[in-house]
From TrEMBL:
Name used for this protein in its record: 4-hydroxyacetophenone monooxygenase
Gene3D superfamilies: FAD/NAD(P)-binding domain (3.50.50.60)
Lineage, uppermost ranks: Bacteria, Pseudomonadati, Pseudomonadota, Betaproteobacteria, Burkholderiales
EC annotation from Swiss-Prot or TrEMBL: 1.14.13.84
Keywords: Monooxygenase, Oxidoreductase
Amino acid sequence: MTETKMDPMIESACRNEALLRQSLEDADVVPALMVLAQLTDESALLEEAAPYIEGAWSYQQKIPPELAKRIRERLIGVLQDYAQSERPVPRVVPDERLQRIMSVGAGQQVPASYVPLLIEEMRLADQDPRAVHWHSGQAPESVEDFRVVVIGAGLSGICAGIRLRQAGIPFVILEKNHEMVGTWFENDYPGCGVDTPNHFYSFSFNPKNDWSHHFAKRDEIFEYFRDTAELHDLRRHVRFGVEVTRLQYHQNVGTWSIELRKEDGALETLDAQAVISAVGLLNRPALPAIEGLDEFAGPSFHTARWDHGVDLKDKRVAMIGTGASAMQAGPEIAPHVAKLTLFQRSPHWAAHNPNYHKPVSAGQQWALENIPLFTEWCRFLLFWAGSDGFHDTLQVDPDWTQPELSLNRDNHAMREVLISHIRRELEDDEELIAKCVPNYPPYGKRMLRDNHWYRTLRRPNVALENGPIERITNDAVVMQDGTRHEVDVLILATGFHAGKVLWPLEISGRDGLNLADAWKGENPRAYKGMTMPGFPNLFVICGPNTALAHGGSLVFHTECQVKYIMQALRAMLENDWQAIEVREDIHDRYNDEVDERCRGMVWSHPGVSSWYKNSENRVTITSPWKLVDYWELTREFEPDDYLVTPSAIVPAISPAIAIVNDPADQSTDEAAGQSA
């Protein structure tokens, strides 16, 4: 049994009964119940509360006040006993007991296969179970001559950089912007925020207990990821203001040449043994192909390039697109503009979540910071509520009688819940309801959060237009039916080139193979979303079929992928391999299974057009796997899946690479990671 001694700060806080009591009365009772169940061998209160827990979201907890009071009182007594006796806190208990605690907290049976995953995700058994360590306890001497280039300093690049630094592998991160954090740096439009609960949308190795809201806004998210990078001293490993334009593999020496463009337009070439692409999907704004777009005389900008110098007050504003950024920005600007006209190609499903605008209470924040295991159990609840718990409802039932509207009985029930919410918000305005109810199954496209979107549509200064746009003039948007909407400002909420994986990078692999040719333009495929035959020592984070559309957190998938990549690099260095390249048969077999699974899921629905799939209806972006499946797939790097080239005499790497490698800082970095 793994145990840790109670932190002195926690011990002191637990001795303060008045503060402990006040905070627990304000905090969620279910994670408190789960903490109690882990700290004791008692099951009575756990089982008594079980019938009142309808799901893992906090608002699905219906525990009666009297029972909640008894849970709090018992936990206070147990915590005080631990503090007074100085007994260590048991972080891991038998799997069967953990599974029962999880199942009660989630309001449904959690399969046993999730127990080892959640022990890792909650960091119950180890300080940092996703850190990759050298088998001998120290890095081989060859690491000093091994160079890694990471493309992109977004959250995936930050994660990769942290792990490379901990391992002592020399690396540089190349970033086209002047700041880290990628999409959370670039997107700062009004209302910009996360639609995954942020206590889960955060690194497992650096939990943040003082989030202001359950679904944080952009500034707080940006600061969290930037601060995480600063904690691990990543900034000195980053070259800002350089954009990678081309990669070329040299198979005779097993290195990549990385061509990058500097801000003055000059080109520079670096060399490295391995490249990790962390460019993401949501960083190249897509502009609509509308006649006359360039002729508009007023201010015009994309939501991802929001022009804060434009004063929207009392202006007539046109917003083209009604997807994620529009649903966040629209309600924020509507109260201040003279008129907001929203141009919609097709409606999106938007779910109501009572926590979406809810601040995290002071008591909840205190409990997260001070009560042992409270943070871990809250993270589990969010993991379960927002991901695999409903994955099965996204499978096509071939015998379902309404396939054009839904997939199965559960998916249809979800549709009815969503429509009921739309009706309530629109106060049974049938004309407006008809514009807002999608004609495809729930989750066919990205499920959005209702950021007061529907009530915004009821405002007298807001209009929703469903018809096609014919052209844009210098001062108006003209519809196909001739209707003319005069506007002062044009905002494009038209998304990104998310379906163009790694675009516009030019990548030339072994024997001159071009990646765009291998993918035939719009047919990206990769083994576990990370490696491709013909492209040795090249790893992709957020590659084909790894985006999460059923729920979960991009951070979780990133951590899985980075751990796998770090294991691959470790294998190369410890075995003195010059190159590793995924076997074509392994790659093809894996992608055949991905395609087979996707064919039976909602994203392949013929009535859905989205960036998740290509023109041939093949799903290329989203992952068909449950989180537990993908975790198992990426848990261990298997050398047998790869062609291995032993090391030869390799010429020295170009000194222009400017990679920081300071092994003396490694112990400091590890200490920072443990304290995070």
